[in-house]
Amino acid sequence: MTRKIKEIMTAAPVTVPRPASVRDAARWMRDSAIGDVLVSDGAPGDGRLCGLVTDRDLVVRVLAAGRDPDSTDVGDVCSSELVSVAPDDDVERAVDLMRRHALRRLPVLDDGRAVGMVSIGDLAMERDPHSVLADISAADPNR
After folding, report:
1. CA dist., res. 140 & res. 2, Å (int)
2. Measured distance CA(70)–CA(49) in Å, rounded
3. CB under 8 A, 24+ apart: contacts of 45-51
4. Is pLDDT at 42 greater than 80 in this prediction?
5. pLDDT digits (tens, 9 = 90+) for 68-81
6. pLDDT tens across 96-125, in order?
7. What is the CA radius of gyration of the chain?
8. Which of 131, 118, 143 is nearest to 33 (CA)?
9. To which H or E segment does residue 107 belong?
10. What is the CATH number of domain 5-138?
11. How much is the pTM?
């Protein structure tokens, strides 16, 4: 039987408002031990999803570019062309999308609302739980 995204996703993704500072987004990532946050146009939980920002985005698009993390809005540096999956999609759909678009993370949307996140690590643990990537993904996060 094919597993569904809702069976492997991380539920309740962290969502930040578009005008939040990059420093605030970095703190949310640190405090939640995650490498990405979703960006919304409104208040967390009720805004329209407009982007995704990763820890790597913060390094490349802010720090390496010499931008000030306190005065740069996360909405100005997030990736806005999102590819997503639904909770009832087959896991194979996520695998296919990640391959085709060279992505490491996919937001999980239910009726346009972010309900989860599925990562390449989640897929590794699902498909090959003894792989190096699965072991790394299952390990406690660095803080």
Report:
1. 28
2. 22
3. 45/15, 47/15, 47/17, 47/18, 48/112, 49/15, 49/82, 49/107, 49/109, 49/112, 49/113, 49/114, 50/18, 50/75, 50/78, 50/80, 51/18, 51/75, 51/78, 51/79, 51/80, 51/82
4. no
5. 999 999 999 999 99
6. 999 999 999 999 999 888 899 998 888 887
7. 15
8. 143
9. strand 105-110
10. 3.10.580.10
11. 0.82
Q: Closest Cα partner for 77 from 85, 88, 69, 87? A: 69
CA gap 127, 13 in Å, rounded: 22
Q: What angle do CA 135, 138, 143 make, to 5 degrees?
A: 115
Tell me the C-alpha to C-alpha distance, in Å, between residue 23 and each of 16, 27, 29, 70: 12, 6, 10, 6
Return the structure tokens found at 113.
Answer: 């609302």
Pairing of strands 10-11, 105-110: unpaired
CA pair distance 73, 71, nearest whole angstrom:
6
| Collapsed DSSP state (helix, strand, coil) of residue 114 | strand
Question: 131: which 2 tokens?
Answer: 């792989």
Q: Which residue has the tokens 């997030």?
A: 78
Q: Where are the domains of the chain?
A: 5-138
